[in-house]
Design a protein that fits this description.
This protein is of the alpha+beta class. It has five helices and twelve strands.
Length: 265
């Protein structure tokens, strides 16, 4: 992991950004990142944008944890799949920091030093190699977010997409608790609560504007809540979801797409 310096305060971020903005060193570093993504990536160099740091984090994808390269700028968080270490990345994702909320999560088995990155459109868990790296990442992200919100006069978003429960955490539907997942009875994910559910429990769709311009799959429970217009006090957090999921080895049966994976699942 590489950061430009030790985070001390929002004022430190402002001073560092002022120092690096329009500098040759910053422009060169951003150009290198753009080159690593190739023509498939979006341009990253804009006036006032500064590359704060970079490093490899383990992202919890629906099938299994996977290494991803992350780049923290003063206004966005960028990540992609590692094709050639430090030389090539693909499937570039850009997350505006002003929409980001982070939340530390407890160590669980082999998954340690993790936290949630939550946004209105997508939320997921990432893990650092050490507790020190976790602390540095969280501190840097939080300071950048605080600076953006302060300068923009905006209120932090309290609406976030659900963190999907990984396939391996459920051998039976997390709603009906009856249907076992097999090559015939495939896994689906509710876009509202993130639960792993069967087809019968997720036949309906609902428009979630922050996530898609078209109605997306939701479970019956969430559909009833959304249709009523009520705000449910019991939508699960990631920990709540995991507590209800069975701990068994995964069977490779699901039919929702995870855009971070190399293959459709």
């Amino acid at each position: 992991m590489l950061f430009t310096g030790e985070v001390k305060s929002v004022g430190w971020i402002l001073k560092m950004v002022d120092r690096l903005t329009n500098s040759e060193a910053n422009a060169r570093r951003i150009s290198i990142v753009e080159g690593c993504f190739g023509t498939a990536g979006q341009p990253l160099a804009i006036p006032g944008r500064v590359l704060i740091g970079e490093g490899v984090l383990t992202k919890l994808c629906r099938k299994k944890p996977k290494a991803r390269q992350f780049f923290l700028f003063n206004d966005i968080l960028v990540y992609g799949n590692i094709v050639i270490q430090k030389k090539k990345y693909n499937k570039q994702h850009i997350i505006p920091l002003e929409n980001v909320t982070i939340e530390s999560i407890l160590d669980e088995g082999d998954l340690r030093n993790g936290w949630l990155i939550k946004t209105p459109t997508k939320s997921f868990a990432v893990y650092a190699a050490t507790a020190t790296e976790k602390s540095e990442w969280m501190n840097h992200i939080q300071k950048c977010v605080s600076d953006l919100i302060s300068k923009g006069g905006k209120t932090p978003s309290n609406e976030h997409a659900a963190v999907w429960v990984p396939d391996s955490e459920a051998t039976v539907c997390m709603r009906c608790q009856k249907v076992k997942f097999t090559p015939v009875s495939r896994r689906h994910h509710c876009r509202k609560c993130g639960f792993v559910v069967c087809g019968l429990c997720s036949e309906k769709k609902f428009l979630l504007p922050n996530q898609s311009s078209k109605p997306v799959r939701v479970c019956d429970f969430c559909h009833d809540i959304l249709s009523s217009g009520e705000v449910s006090p019991c939508y699960p957090t990631r920990s709540d979801s995991y507590c209800q999921a069975a701990k068994f080895p995964p069977s490779n049966v699901s039919d929702d797409d995870d855009e971070d994976d190399d293959s459709s699942d």
